[in-house]
Design brief:
Structural class: mainly alpha
Strand content: under 5%
Oligomer: single chain
Radius of gyration: 22 Å
Order of helices and strands: H
Number of helices: 1
Shape: rod-shaped
Number of strands: 0
Helix content: over 70%
Mean pLDDT: 88
Low-confidence stretches: none
């Protein structure tokens, strides 16, 4: 019975690691997509005219 508990713990750990990895990858892809759009909307070098 101990082998089954060890397998369950390993499976849960593997699932959580995969979930974290997918979340990190999705966040990175989203940053790559939205960063150029952000730079177009908010250009850095432009001064505010008073």
């Amino acid at each position: 019975m101990e082998a089954m508990g060890c397998f369950a713990a390993f499976a849960i750990t593997l699932f959580l690691a995969a979930f974290v990895l997918i979340t990190v990858i999705n966040g990175g892809v989203q940053m790559v997509i939205y960063f150029p759009i952000y730079k177009i909307i908010f250009p850095e070098g432009e001064q505010i005219k008073n």
